[in-house]
Write a structure and sequence with these properties.
By secondary structure, this protein is α+β, with helices and mostly antiparallel strands. It is 13% helix and 16% strand. A hairpin with a 2-residue loop joins β3 and β4. The structure holds zinc ion.
């Protein structure tokens, strides 16, 4: 098994962890009902995605 040759200095550890932050989710308006919606997610209000009904109505396929 591979074993680290040297311990990681605190500065290097901090440089690596500088990318470990949480970013806020992108919010956009739903094109159907204009309510705020997370990008790349089905709209929770009208249940549409990419201009077609995904949730709710059973007639659309
Ligand atoms: Zn919607």
């Amino acid at each position: 098994m591979a074993v680290p040759k040297r311990r990681t200095p605190p500065a290097k550890q901090g440089q690596r962890r500088s990318h470990h932050h949480v970013v806020a989710a992108q919010i956009a308006r739903c094109p159907q009902c204009r309510s705020p919606r997370v990008n790349h997610r089905i709209c929770p209000v009208c249940g549409s995605y990419k201009g077609r009904q995904v949730l709710g109505s059973s007639d659309s396929r």
